[in-house]
Amino acid sequence: MPRLRRLKIVAAVFAGTLLSILLSACAEKTAETYQGYAEGEYVYVASPLGGRLDSLAVRRGMEVESGAPLFALESEKETAAVQQAQAQLATAQAQLSDIKTGRRVPEVEVIEAQLAQAQAQLTQAKTQAERDEKQLAIGGIAEAQRDDSRSRFETAAARVRELQHQIEVARLPNRGEQIKAQEAQVTAMRAALAQADWALRQKSVTASKSGEVVDTLYREGEWVAAGAPVVKMLPPQNIKARFFVPETKVGALRKGQAVRLVCDGCAAPINATISYIADQAEYTPPVIFSNETRAKLVFMIEAYPQTSDAHLLHPGQPVSVSLL
Question: Which of 51, 170, 192, 310 could form a disulfide bond with 103, CB atoms 3.0-4.6 angstroms apart?
Answer without folding.
Answer: 170
